[in-house]
Amino acid sequence: MKVPLTTGLVGAGGVNQSFLARLPALLGSLGPVKGSSLRVSRRIANGFKAGAGVDGYFAFRDCGLIWIAVPESMVSTVCADMSRAVPLRGKMVVVCDVLCDSFIASPLQAEGARVATLNCIPDTAEKAFVAEGHRDVLAELRKLLARDCRQLIELHAVSKPLYLSGVFLARHMLFPWICGATESLRAAGFTRDQATSAVQAMGGRALRAYAKAGTKAWNRVEAKRLHREILRDLDAIRFTGPSVAPLYTNQLERLLAGDSTGNKSVRRPAQRETHVIAKVVPV
After folding, report:
1. N or C: which end of the chain has fewer CB within 10 A?
2. Domain-located, residue 267
3. Could you tell me the pTM of the whole model?
4. Which domain holds residue 112?
5. Three-class secondary structure of residue 67 per DSSP
6. What secondary structure does DSSP assign to 114-178, as a single string?
7. What is the C-alpha separation between 196 and 43, in angstroms, rounded?
8. Count of Cβ atoms closer than 10 Å to residue 274 Cβ
9. What CA–CA distance (Å, rounded) separates 100 from 282?
10. How many domains does the chain have?
């Protein structure tokens, strides 16, 4: 039976409230814990009820797997300090909850560390995660998360910005449309409960149809007919629902003239070795 890797953790910025505190497979092998000071290190370890607080990176020399869970602005400093104090060749490093790709830990990669980033997918009750980076680290993460009945989705090389784009569109860009649909129904005479129930039912049906048939589920003919009727009465909409009208005019003509997304299909990044350092600009 393979012996679990000795695990170290560098933490800051409320790490005790992160998903790491609820991963028994991690906590069971946790050794040294490094914070901004020995007092903070001990506080983090006490909060996790695992590991032991240390005051220097030297304690990570025997760790095969190192977790970094600090604010993104601190990652470069942590990596630089660690690379000066710890022999890193062959070690696996996981950088948690950052928007950047694994290039953010390039000082560690330059010293021979294998690096990946790990993010919890929002609104999944910490049951699903995405990761990108070195294939060996991804394999270790998959095994570790599986022990806690979590799912890991491996991102294609240099495609983390596409993941972030999907999260942004789903969590934030949908809101104006949901709000516009609900407020339109309320202005037409629906109660709030009636409006939200109707929008939830229609939105859920659209999502289920997409899951089943993809973009083919979009009824272009019906959408164009409805849109023509809306445009005919747009002055009335501007008068009774001024916040709703821009939703019809902003890029909607392009949507109806093109495909159901208004864009060409998103092309997957070319496959390449995921341990190659590739700097991309996150969305």
Report:
1. N
2. no
3. 0.81
4. 7-158
5. strand
6. EEEEEEEPTTSTT-EEEEEE-HHHHHHHHHHHHHTT-EEEEPPTT-HHHHHHHHHIIIIIHHHHH
7. 45
8. 24
9. 6
10. 2
